[in-house]
Amino acid sequence: MPMIPAVRGTRDILPGEIERWQFVEDVARRLFERYGYAEVRTPIIEREELFAKGTGDTTDIVQKEMYTFTDKGGERITLRPEATPSLVRAFVEHSLEQQMAVPKLYCLGPMFRYERPQKGRYRQFHQLDVEVFGVHDAWIDAEIIDLAWSLVSELGIQGSELLLNSVGCPVCRPAFTAALVAALGEDVKRLCGDCQRRAATNPLRIFDCKVPADQAIIDRLPHTIDYLCAACTAHFDQVKRHLELYGISYRISHRLVRGLDYYTRTTFEILIGSLGAQNALLGGGRYNGLVKALGGPDRTGIGFAAGIERLVLALPEDASIAIARPDVFVAAIGDAARLEAVRLVKQLRSAGFKAQLDDEGRSIRSQMKTADRLKAPLAAILGDNELTKNEVTMRDMASGEQTSIGRADVGEYVRLAMPRVKPPLEAAPRGQ
RNA sequence: GUGAGUGUAGCUCAGUGGUUAGAGCGCCGGACUGUGGCUCCGGAAGUCGGGGGUUCGAAUCCCCUCACUCACCCCA
């Protein structure tokens, strides 16, 4: 039988790597909750129109990257390409501003985009998503950015950079796009095909262009922050002042306009050089019109999405991440001892220890070898000698020292041995 | 959707027209019959990504195809 491989752009995360994921997720959860954010889980499938309206018809995500199908009831269903519209929907659908004192939400899980896979990019990928609704004040922009920056630094990721910009609002943007088109003038014909299209549909996104020949022209274009209205200018100044309060350094990037339609005012990204072409660890911004556009009250929103794959890739090699290993390996010699070993393993597990037994009743040599490979710090050895004396031989696998102890004292012995055999640094993924 | 590179054992790879396709690591067993790590010995394991073609003969050359990787586009 030929094997059936995983779908393109999807992958299995196996033991050995999963610990790094659990570490990232655990650090993120604890950090978000320290900041007062509550977890929400939304469905992975949504109506197509949620993203058509929420993410935006003109975006690449909606135009060519969505997994959409018609279900048996004739409904157009989409596998979510991002989480923000779902969280906005949940916020609106459940009137969360009435339910929650402060609508600060986070969620994590898989997203789907039909793209060609490459380093740090998959068709099923995973994001950590954080959103706050209904706060106008610029201090929340800074808090969200501080949260994002803290996530990266608490994971021990080195060499990242914060990019910041403001893309204005419906008041000032028309004047800016007019100025942009005017400044382009005849040069528009010298830009690449994509940019010529953008000039007509969404001129802001010309700043996304990376075609070398276009760069000289783009560098001469006006900047959004020079065309902000008074309110947007004041807001942006506040954001910068608060960031200085937090001691977070940033670089203003005039070209950070971002691909999604809904952004207003603040946009930001955290980049890292070590990931190759897909260098954005996370990105986000403010979206003041989105909640209303999705049928809710006129409330502001701000948030960011971080790519878990990319965070995991950016994790330092020497991150102290505990690998799963038993506390005790129980080795048995002979059938009678094996029966007793089963009892002992069950007893240790019930007492909260990670205990394992050889699954196939092989030679003692093989069992000790397995204990070694599992990196068990302790081995409990049971044979006829031990059975007749009602004892267990405890072996310290690091030193090779062995002691005979009474059968009834094994639990206590393991409990006392644990602190001294456990490694000093244990990041303790989850579910201890 | 476009371009380039790579597909040989579980993993990393050697083998570029000539016997039954190899190595290292890993795995299983033994030397060591109740004890892991070191050493030595033995063993299992491959439709050489798939299909077609050239040839007396193909892992090797040609064509097609699939997958993976990286990059473009765009994004997390």
**If you compute it from the alpha carbons, what radius of gyration comes out, rounded to the nearest whole angstrom?**
28 Å
Low-confidence stretches: 421-432
CATH level 4 superfamily of the largest domain: Bira Bifunctional Protein, Domain 2
The overall pLDDT average reads 89
Portion of residues within helices: 25-40%
The CATH topology of the largest domain comes to BirA Bifunctional Protein, domain 2
| Percentage of residues in strands | 15-25%
Do you know the CATH architecture of the largest domain? 2-Layer Sandwich
* Distance linking N and C termini: 40 Å
CATH level 1 class label of the largest domain: Alpha Beta
Number of helices: 16
* Main β-sheet, spatial strand arrangement: 1-5-6-11-10-9-7-8
Query: Care to count the β-strands?
Result: 16
What kind of assembly state do the chains in view correspond to? single chain
Give a quick set of tags describing it.
single chain, 432 residues, alpha+beta, BirA Bifunctional Protein, domain 2, Rossmann fold, 2 domains, 8-stranded mixed β-sheet, 5-stranded mixed β-sheet, 16 helices, 16 strands, elongated, disordered C terminus, RNA-binding
Structure description:
By secondary structure, the chain is α+β, with helices and mostly antiparallel strands. The protein folds into two domains: 18-172 and 228-314, BirA Bifunctional Protein, domain 2 (2-Layer Sandwich), CATH 3.30.930.10; 328-421, Anticodon-binding domain (Rossmann fold, 3-Layer(aba) Sandwich). The chain is 37% helix and 20% strand. It is built from 16 helices and 16 strands. It has helices spanning 18-34, 48-54, 60-64, 84-93, 96-99, 138-154, 173-184, 193-201, 212-219, 230-246, 290-293, 308-314, 335-350, 364-373, 384-389, 410-421, and strands spanning 38-39, 45-47, 67-70, 76-79, 104-112, 124-133, 160-166, 251-252, 264-272, 280-286, 301-307, 328-332, 355-357, 378-382, 391-396, 402-406. The protein has an eight-stranded mixed beta sheet with strand order 1-5-6-11-10-9-7-8, sandwiched between helices. Strands 13-12-14-15-16 form a five-stranded mixed beta sheet, sandwiched between helices. Helix 1 packs antiparallel against helix 6. The radius of gyration is 28 Å and the shape is elongated. The two termini are 40 Å apart. Mean pLDDT is 89; it is low at 421-432.
